[in-house]
Specification:
This protein is of the alpha+beta class and 73 residues long. The protein contains two helices and two strands; from the N terminus they run H-E-E-H. It has one domain. Strand 1 and strand 2 form a beta hairpin. The longest helix has 19 residues.
Length: 73
Amino acid sequence: MNSLKIVAVALIVAGVLGLMYGGFSYTKETHDVKLGPIELSVNEKQTVNIPVWAGIGAIVVGGLLLVFGSKKG
């Protein structure tokens, strides 16, 4: 399996996962105030939404790479 097919399959899998989950979230820790030995930190939950068009586009591009990428002109 060459690298082009691996990229194509990875795009298809990423597109399907993007459509299934619609996004992901992560926790970001920030240090807001530090006064001597006292330090206040805040954990913020960040959410990243993946647009539907991006998931569909990744699937289409991955499929096109699988079909037309292996053909040599």
